[in-house]
Specification:
Elements (H helix, E strand, L loop, with lengths): L1 H19 L2 H27 L4 H9 L3 H9 L5 H16 L4 H14 L4 E3 L2 E3 L2 H4 L4 H20 L12 H8 L1 H20 L5 H17 L2 H16 L4 H25 L10 H8 L8 H11 L6 H15 L4 H6 L9 H20 L18 H7 L2 H46 L5
Antiparallel strand pairs: 1-2
Helix pairs in contact: 2-4, 2-5, 2-13, 5-6, 5-8, 6-8, 6-10, 8-10, 11-13, 12-13, 12-18, 14-18, 15-16, 15-20, 18-20, 19-20
């Protein structure tokens, strides 16, 4: 085991660390995370509007509230692409020690610049679909390109500089003029060229270039198993797997959830099983590695009389956060990181969750997800909210039971090791006391 741990630390850790610290991946993660409150707020409006009681929905329609609730959903959930175009450029510029707000604003303008407008009697307008999940892929591409170009100009000092006596807010806005003009003009030329040649707009092109390959990986059970396995492997070597793997796949899962939302609003059949809600609330229960099974086993053992001191100390700091899907205390406290004794269930538990949950939704035993719950929402409650059915909660209970059974034999082995170490320590202390003539 020490040899395996040595190999992981010397060979895999440096590689994983470089991937985990990649500026572009961090920018994607932070930019999309910036939009997550809107997804959750929009989902709350949606849950209220579509609460699974027929008389409730009918009553909301009769009093005229339903349309306002759906308006709230469209005006929050439906803006994630727009927000991400700002957030990704903002995050990337900040990592290069450059003003992020200027970068984000320029990127937001370029995003709107590259989006085809629609005309009506009220005037030209931007399609709502492109502001939402449909625009998420081009938001990623443009956010990264725009953020990098912006920081390059600033760091190369190609900017309008005002005297130090000028307020920072004013001088900062002038600094953005040259890189902003270049970025916006560049996307305007691209938009004009595509339009004049009757080619698809940048959103449709990005959907093919980025959306299709990622969709092949993230829209089927086999690809999802690979993604989940990679997430666990990154976590195992001490890198936040969600920040690396999920930041790449999240646009696909969010787009799938948004497509389900729109289908539900239109009274059409929902199409996507694997969504961001599916991953957060059915696969990663308790956090990466589905560690809710691990912490519940620790909590159970801690209540027993002859449990090791180590387990009794770990239970309070791991169980409560674990119920809210916060597993950093578990990852570094047990620890799970670089602990060869836990690698099997840590990889296997979320994979089992994928297979069981996917099968349940595919067979129609549980409705497909159409709303998002906060990732810190405890299981059983979140299962009901994202599916609108008690069967979602029942599925979570089944998954948690399976996770407990998977972790149980491995935790018992670790507990046995804890006890052996404590007995050895007590024996050593007793021997030292005897040698010193101390009678206990």
């Amino acid at each position: 085991m020490s040899r395996v741990n040595g190999f992981l630390e010397e060979r895999l850790m440096p590689v994983a660390s470089k991937v985990g610290n990649n500026k572009f991946l961090i920018a994607i993660r932070d930019g999309i995370t910036l939009a997550m409150p809107l997804i959750i707020i929009g989902s709350l409006f949606m849950i209220i509007a579509s609460f699974p009681i027929a008389s409730w929905e009918a009553w909301l329609g009769e009093i005229g509230v339903a349309d306002y609730l759906w308006k709230g959903t469209d005006s929050s959930f439906g803006l994630i692409g727009l927000v991400a175009s700002f957030g990704i450029a903002y995050s990337l510029a900040r990592q290069y020690k450059v003003d992020g707000i200027g970068s984000g604003i320029i990127s937001l303008s370029a995003f709107i610049m590259a989006t085809p407008f629609i005309s009506s009697d009220a005037g030209a307008g931007m399609p709502v679909a492109y502001m939402g999940a449909k625009g998420l892929f081009i938001a990623i591409i443009m956010g990264l390109i725009n953020g990098y170009i912006y920081q390059w100009f600033i760091n190369k000092n190609i900017q309008i500089k005002l005297p130090d006596s000028v307020p920072q807010a004013v001088s900062g806005s002038f600094s953005a003029i040259i890189p902003g003009a270049v970025i916006i003009t560049m996307w305007l030329v691209i938009y004009g060229a595509l339009t004049s040649l009757n080619l698809p707009n940048v959103h449709d092109i990005a959907q093919v270039i980025l959306g299709k390959p990622l969709g092949l990986l993230g829209n089927n059970v086999f690809g999802t198993i690979i993604v989940v396995g990679l997430n666990s492997l990154f976590w195992f070597v001490g890198i936040h797997g969600g920040n690396v793997v999920n930041s790449v796949m999240q646009p696909v899962w969010i787009a799938n959830l948004d497509a389900n939302r729109l289908a539900y609003q239109a009274n059409e059949e929902l199409q996507h099983i694997i969504t961001v809600s599916f991953m957060d609330n059915f696969v990663y229960i308790g956090g990466g590695g589905a560690t809710i099974g691990l912490v519940l086993v620790l909590g159970y053992l801690a209540r027993k009389k002859h449990t090791s001191k180590q387990t009794k100390a770990l239970a309070p700091i791991t169980v409560t956060p674990g119920l809210f899907n916060i597993n950093e205390p578990t990852m570094f406290g047990v620890p799970v990181v670089l602990n060869v004794m836990l690698i099997v269930p840590f990889i296997l538990a979320p994979i089992v969750n994928v297979i069981v949950a996917y099968s349940a939704l595919a067979m129609g035993l549980v409705p497909l997800t159409k709303a998002a719950a906060s990732w810190t929402m405890p299981p059983i409650i979140s299962g009901f909210l994202i599916t609108g059915s008690i069967s979602g909660s029942i599925l979570q209970i089944v998954l948690i039971t399976l996770d407990i059974l998977l972790y149980l034999p491995f935790v018992l082995a670790i507990e046995k090791r804890y006890k052996a170490l404590e007995r050895k320590e007590e024996s050593t202390v007793k021997k030292v006391n005897v040698d010193k003539g101390i009678v206990s």
